[in-house]
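Exercise: predict the fold of this chain.
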Amino acid sequence: MADLDKLVGELSKLSVLEAAELVKKLEESWGVSAAAPVAMAAMAAPASAAEPEEEKTEFDVVIKDAGPKKIEVIKVIRQLTSLGLKEAKDVAETAGSKVLEAVGKDAATDAKGKLEAAGAVVEVQ
């Protein structure tokens, strides 16, 4: 068997033109084409590479449970929104209600913190 390290060292000394000539000779000698696997690999790479997911910029603040301090939660909901007392009470009492929709990450995090401090169970989606 040939010494592969020695062979790699010799091939590394070739110029680009000499390497291209070597490829042609190997293709003729072995009856293969070096272009096909390269083209297939180039075509497969973009298909298999997943595009990076865009970072989410809009969030919904959803109340899961008002908790034991419902009045405090209603007060916070009224501070965060322009809802009246009855509407804020309905939001607090209905699990899965959106307190805020399509707000920025900072606003959603801030609202979540305030609602949780009041005793509610909240989720940012």
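Check your answer against the key: The longest strand covers residues 59-65.
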